[in-house]
Amino acid sequence: MRRCQWRPVFSGTMLDDQSAAEARPAAQPSTPAWPTEYPDAYAVVDVETTGLARDDRIVSAAVYRLDARGDVVDHWYTPVNPQRDPGPTWIHGLTSEMLADAPLFPEIAEEFAERLRGRVLVAHNAVFDWSMIAREYARARLTAPVRQRLCTIALSKELELPLANHRLETLAAHYGVVQRRAHHALDDARVLAEAFRPSLHLAAAGRIRLPLLACQPLTEWTDSIASSGASGGPRPRSYAASWRPSRKRPPCPHPNPGRYEPGKPLVQGMRVAISGDTSVDRELLEDRAVEAGLHIASGVSRLTSLLVTNDPDSGTSKVAKARAFGTPVIDEAAFTQLLREVAPAPGE
Question: What CA–CA distance (Å, rounded) separates 86 from 95?
Fold first, then answer.
């Protein structure tokens, strides 16, 4: 039985005087009318985790809710008991003892969802934060109410900010935002909220299209995907690894028969690229395609047979190249249907 009900450490509708002052940087130059196509509200999010792999868990979460122009509405923070070793405590500072009485994710899921509902999720390297959140909701048999996300790294690139790199501390320094506690979810979310507002205003002044991506809740997933070391045991976890590390697959045994023709079946050997979120875990979907005799391509080229995406209006490089090359584009549901009957390679 749980010893006590943990309450979020920080939650409120107003910032303290110092944070409020920092959240309102110097007035921006006057701009034209605010772009009507921009979102109405944002949720700046940071989660700290036990690691970077698909089976890792959230140990703390923070949300700064912002209005349409990036002004802070309120903020919220909670630790989360991951029900396992907390991982890199030297990074996030949370030990097993500190998290023993923290709530489990299902216990904070609804309050977390309320902070996200109706807002664009904003994060630094947003694919990671969103993927961890989507997995936690999937484990709890719930769905996160997030339909779009915005990565501040992608936004910085769109704005062509003169940054030496795209680390959060570099973006913060560019705008004069002081970081007090790096890798603490609440402070990282505060720093990002303060840096996002001037970026948002720069984008609005330049009528720049925001790099919004669709978020697809997971409906089929697994935590068991893992590579093995030479001894056959699990490979030691690296906390510097990327969220979606490249997987070495054996070469496709079939020649590329060319582009997919709408209305016809897929053919073994076709080169298939996937862009954006999928409701089926990406690696599961890729494995099924490989088992059917297809070649999974990491990018789009003139040789790509098909692009699979649930967000064809996104500005990702794969979507842009598919348009330029005239590569056929279909969504995940259509692709899953086509996987059921893949035609044999010519001559086989």
Answer: 6
Contact of 293 with 269, CB cutoff 8 Å: yes
pLDDT tens string 157-196? 999 999 999 999 999 999 999 999 999 999 999 999 999 9
CA atoms within 13 A on the CB side of 62: 22
For residues 345 and 23, what is the distance between their CA atoms, to the nearest angstrom? 59
Phi and psi at residue 301, to the nearest 5°: -135, -175
Distance CA 39, CA 65 (A): 13
Alpha helices (H) in the chain, listed in sequence order? 17-23, 89-92, 96-99, 105-116, 126-139, 152-159, 168-174, 185-205, 282-291, 317-325, 332-339
* 147 close to 215: Cβ distance less than 8 angstroms: yes
Taking the C-alpha atoms of residue 307 and residue 294, their distance in angstroms, rounded to an integer, is 13
Q: Tens digit of pLDDT for each residue in 118-160?
A: 999 999 999 999 999 999 999 999 999 999 999 999 999 999 9
